[in-house]
Amino acid sequence: MDRILKVMSAVNEYFEKESPKPPLSKLLHIYGVGYLSAAIASARGLDMELAFIIGILHDIGKLKTNVDSSGVSHNVEGEKIAKELLTNLNSFTQEEIKIICQAIRNHPNKRFIDTEYDELIKDADVIEKVFIEKKKFKNKRYKRRRLKNTLGEFGLEHYPEEG
Fold it and tell me: Which of 11, 28, 58, 63 counts the most CB atoms within 10 A of its CB?
């Protein structure tokens, strides 16, 4: 729990530094994905603390850019920011930092199957976007399938159809 609080504090400080008035929607998204990641981790027998941390860090690169002038996307930028932030906290092993950073880097690639933590963040991100942000995934069969499969793990069969 102590590590979660340290990361939350560092994320909040980073948000304030990069964007003095960050949009509420960004904060709600990262913390929403964090909580969903922990719930999915619990269901899958994964480390809930690590999952929550991946969730709140997964879009940290969006504060700097979606794609910057050099063509760097938010997940690549986020991986760099997260590695620096986690290293500076001196609370994580190199293996944990590697797992977290890899999940951040791979989370936009929802068509592909990667490691268990990569998949966890992809699934939490899709669920948050559908149920909180009310996004529709028209012509995104792979995202709808991901949503259906993840909800099925919790015994939930109802999910928003494309529309």
Answer: 58
